[in-house]
Amino acid sequence: MFEVLVFCLLTVIISFILTPLIKKVALKVNAIDKPGERRVNVKPMPTLGGLAIYLSFYFSLFFMQAVPFKQVLPLFIASTVIIVTGMIDDLIEITPKMKLLGITIGALIIYYVADIRMDLVTLPLIGEIELGIFSLPITLLWILAITNAVNLIDGLDGLATGVSIIALTTMGIIGFFFLTIDDVAVPIMIFTLVAAATGFLPYNFFPARIFLGDTGALFLGFMISVMSLQGLKNATLITVIVPVVILGIPITDTIAAILRRRLNRKPISSADKMHLHHRLMALGLTHRQTVLAIYSIAAMFSLIALMYPLSNVIGSIMLTIGLLLGLELFMELIGLVSEERRPLLSRLKRFANRLNRKR
Questions:
Q1: How many CB atoms lie within 10 A of CB 262?
Q2: 3-state class (DSSP) for residue 127
Q3: DSSP-derived secondary structure letter, 133
Q4: CA within 13 Å, CB half, 207
Q5: What is the spatial distance between Cα 42 and Cα 90, in angstroms, rounded to a whole number?
Q6: pLDDT at 168 over 90
Q7: Which residues pair with 234 in a beta bridge?
């Protein structure tokens, strides 16, 4: 364990040293995010920052950490497809369909080559359900959804990087200490990725000197989705819920965006300025305050996720109900789906008015 910690610290240092070099490369190849209607940045910013995380992460796995080469290789091949997809998008801005194709190819490598998939689900009162032919589409949907969810929240300096660090750290703690993952190599890979992202964060936090770009946002989202799948090969209801709760921020923002665009009769892939960070800034928070507020919410999700392995079935159900109600209230309070549609708040207001009339 001591060696793992030392190598993680070295990974932080490697990532920290590598990031300024990647910045120079980004400027040289003109991988620059320019200000625009859909952007928050007010000046041109070099992207490709995720390349520093990717390189330091795999350098550590191949040359320092005690992780079997045959276990790392298929993951390396799949995530390289994702990195190339992100780099192309950062350089020439490809269509959403092309990005989806790249992620799908990476996901297929994970399914067929790495043999990381969801095969079986155990549900309370029902028992084991073999997924069979549904294993592939469910696994692909899981990877695509989480990868795009993380990419979607990459709208402020350090936001996607910090939220990913919080989510990955929680996954590593649960996987290692609560033994939801049989193979100890998986938590080691998770903590190594945390280290690589931590070395990059000082350059990415507000005011940022380099962006993750799609290169980094897609890579982090893809790695989170794949690593969460490691504990879901023979999934139970709790092992499915836990990673969803850990990733509460990007998943909530994605679901809200889909609902919002459906209600407004717009394509799901269309862009808007109604995401979580946009709404918080519209309420008067500064750039830095918004990022720190979302970090705090992500940490709350993680703390709730840590409670699931310690709870029985009834406790887990109560946690889930409380979480869903709290989420709905929060979304309505900040107008994440719509500033007009607030069904739960309206019902609570009517209930409070009735109580007042009775008095």
A1: 12
A2: strand
A3: G
A4: 5
A5: 18
A6: yes
A7: 120
Q: Are 213 and 48 in contact (CB under 8 A)?
A: yes
Distance (Å, rounded) from C-alpha 241 to C-alpha 260? 24
Please name the helix (run of DSSP H) or strand (run of DSSP E) that holds residue 132, with its range, or none.
none
Pairing of strands 127-130, 120-123: antiparallel
Query: How many degrees, rounded to 5, is the angle at CA 138 between CA 137 and CA 142?
Result: 115
Between CA 201 and CA 216 the distance in angstroms is 12
pLDDT above 70 covers a percentage of the chain that reads 94
pTM for the structure as a whole: 0.90
Q: How far apart are CA 308 and CA 241, in angstroms?
A: 9
List the strands of the sheet with 234-236, edge to edge: 127-130, 120-123, 234-236
pLDDT digits (tens, 9 = 90+) for 278-288: 889 888 899 99
Separation of alpha carbons 58 and 65, rounded Å: 10
Please state the rounded mean pLDDT for residues 161-189: 84
Q: How many residues comprise the chain?
A: 359
Structure tokens at 183: 């193979």
Tokens of 74: 């298929």
Q: Taking a C-beta distance cutoff of 8 angstroms, is the pair 151, 157 a contact?
A: no
Q: Which two tokens stand for residue 150?
A: 């993380």
Token pair of 311, please? 């709870």
pLDDT in tens, 217-265: 999 999 999 998 887 766 677 778 888 899 989 999 888 888 888 887 7
For residue 189 the two structure tokens come to 């890979």
Burial category of 24 from C-beta neighbours within 10 Å (exposed 0-12, middle 13-18, buried 19 and up): exposed
Return the percentage of the chain with pLDDT > 90, whole number: 47
Q: How far apart are CA 284 and CA 290, in angstroms?
A: 9
